[in-house]
């Protein structure tokens, strides 16, 4: 094989060079240098293969090379399994922490657009005598690197496309395998400490996903398509001249799955979640700093936006109202005090969402949730800021079927028909339906759980009917009171008019007497 022959030639050259080193002391250094350069030139002229090395550490061996990392992941996913000797390494923050890659001095082949390339993992010893007190990795004198070999006629395709493809795919695999994180902003500490991180995080292990999310099937598919389009939208967004970000407004009554949907979106998109607590943000400048620290491929969430700050402009309390209020419990008082100490304004928040800074990085999602969409300032939720408004509503039949599958592992049952009818006549949140479906003891079977739900739905229906009756009665009474009030007003006005006329009449007769 041609390549084999060339490697033999390489060994031959090495022998020549070895002999050269033996004789080097007999020649002056200027002559030696010239000879070495010439030998290299000859070898390059005859060897049609090009080699590129990717060292494990860049710079002063302080930072692990991103390229090396990406290549390792790419090779272990694509072709390392074919290597005979594998090396196992534990990678931090990965769903699958054990990464198998080829062992030192192993070689594997890869193919790209019909071009064959060779990858080998190499290890060389650096000078052990040279001690660097600042280098963290100097306990070991080994330097690792990957070597890529290819025929020189494919130079362009390899350097322009293949390497880019390997690095991109490696990073993509790393992103897919990594563990999601849930971030929250640290409370403002007054003056900023040097290098104080603005976000703290934990590993995000929410069990919810779109499969387990109970909602109307068609609307769910709609959201999934929207998210998938956004994920692949890099070129589209740059073509239309719009920052690559999308805002979702989730609104609806409590317990309808807004927070659950955020977890499902994070899992589907494989993005970290940045849960922004607005009341802990000191002012607009800090809000901007928080935004700068959120990377691309992230979801920024503001839950219950209507309660976060007084952004609605409708909830300002008049002084009298505040004076008349009952004493508050200390927890709420604290919350309100911290909200008062925050000077974030509506305009600061609007800038946060679609100001010039928000365009940095791209591939960002912003989600607001609220129970009262009508309370929000229209500017905050206009399209462009909150591009898609998603209503999370009371449990429908589709949603019930998902919950029944999740909680009881049943896809159909005779009682489903009855439940479907009752769901149409009631307003029960998926959280309540789920609670009623959940078996409360080992003895409860599917039928018992479904009957529990039917009873709860019936109760809910009765309560609703009673409430409706009460409301209707109240309306009738209000109407009656209004009528009486208008009538009385009319009578009073009539009486007043009569009294005035009488007074005037008396005045007229008195005047006449006076003139007479
Ligand atoms: N649509 C749903 N699909 C699956 N489970 C749901 C759904 N809605 C609610 N649940 C269940 O009910 C619980 C509460 O739901 P969730 O916290 O998502 O409601 P929410 O709309 O965010 O409520 P709130 O407005 O009070 O914040 C969840 O833990 C979940 O188990
Ligand atoms: Mg919620």
From TrEMBL:
This enzyme catalyses: ATP + H2O = ADP + phosphate + H(+)
Where's the AAA+ ATPase domain? Answer: 244-396
Domain of life where this protein originates: Eukaryota
Biased composition annotated in UniProt, kind: Basic and acidic residues: 319-340, 478-495, 502-516
Q: Which cofactor does it need?
A: Mg(2+)
Q: Any idea which UniProt keywords this protein has?
A: ATP-binding, Hydrolase, Magnesium, Nucleotide-binding
Q: Name one GO molecular function term.
A: ATP binding
Q: Does the keyword Metal-binding apply?
A: no
Q: Which Pfam families does UniProt cross-reference here?
A: AAA (PF00004), AAA_assoc (PF14363), AAA_lid_At3g28540 (PF25568)
Q: Where is this region: Disordered?
A: 316-340, 464-516
Q: Sorted alphabetically, which Gene3D superfamilies does this protein's record hold? A: 6.10.280.40, P-loop containing nucleotide triphosphate hydrolases
Residues in coiled coil: none
One Gene Ontology term from the biological process aspect of the record: response to stress
Q: SUPFAM superfamilies from the entry?
A: P-loop containing nucleoside triphosphate hydrolases
Belongs to which family?
A: Belongs to the AAA ATPase family. BCS1 subfamily.
Q: What is this protein called?
A: AAA+ ATPase domain-containing protein
